[in-house]
Design brief:
It contains eight helices and five strands. By secondary structure, the chain is α/β, with parallel strands linked by helices.
Length: 229
């Protein structure tokens, strides 16, 4: 019998890859996505497609309206930056950062993991090709894991230690795409754009699109996602 694992699934290429990794490593995927009021809600549709393709035993899309707080270009009336260089992207925390997002997501994943009787949680963050988000760093994930092992019944009793699996942490986008392609990930199902049009087509100019396109170019593949003309 395979072990259950909660897999945070955004609908982007990173989370599609970690779902495939979890399956490869012998886990039963319980996918968790969040409808948090993000302007790019096309990713929820993508998450549903990816969860089905990954053979998730269950896929929960949890509504949490972070628009009540705002403070991000993804949840507030703030323009999404476009056309930034890699140096610009590396020069600080961008306005697309959603305050405490990964802490909120991981906390809810932790709650579901406890109910499922597992301590295994997968998250697809990486510290090389990322847009400067503080909650995508290895020390943050290590700190969250340490906290989780102080905060849950099973961990405190010594029966269910918590492990935050972050297999992409040291990979570039190109390396992630190469890995996922080898695992059979269909990246045409995924969406990454922060500011898609009404038809779900990517803008091609936001930070997320730039990193995605760079990754596909490095991996030697064409990006199968639809883009605006």
């Amino acid at each position: 019998m395979t072990r259950p694992a909660v897999v945070l699934l955004s609908g982007g290429l990173d989370s599609a890859t970690i779902a495939a990794i979890a399956r490869r490593d012998g886990y039963t995927v319980f996918a968790l996505s969040f409808d948090y009021g993000q302007r790019h809600d096309v990713e929820i549709q993508a998450a549903r497609r990816v969860a089905a393709a990954a053979g998730a035993k269950r896929h929960v899309v949890l509504p949490i309206d972070l628009r009540a707080f705002g403070g991000s270009a993804l949840t507030d009336d703030i323009p999404v930056p476009k056309g930034r260089s890699e140096d610009d992207m590396a020069a600080g925390i961008p306005v697309t950062y959603v305050p405490a997002r990964n802490t909120i997501f991981l906390s809810l994943a932790l709650a579901w993991a406890e109910v499922l009787g597992t301590g295994d949680i997968f998250i697809g963050v990486n510290a090389r090709d990322y847009s400067g988000y503080p909650d995508c760093r290895p020390d943050y994930l290590a700190a969250f894991q340490a906290m989780a092992n102080l905060a849950t019944k099973g961990a405190v009793e010594g029966t269910l230690p918590v492990t935050i699996h972050n297999p992409l942490i040291d990979l570039t986008k190109g390396e992630i795409i190469t890995l996922g392609t080898g695992l059979g990930v269909d990246y045409s199902l995924t969406r990454s754009c922060y500011d898609p049009d009404s038809h779900g087509r990517a803008c091609g100019a936001c930070d997320s699109c730039a990193l995605r396109l760079k990754g596909f170019a490095e991996a030697g593949f064409a990006d199968p996602a639809p883009y605006q003309a």
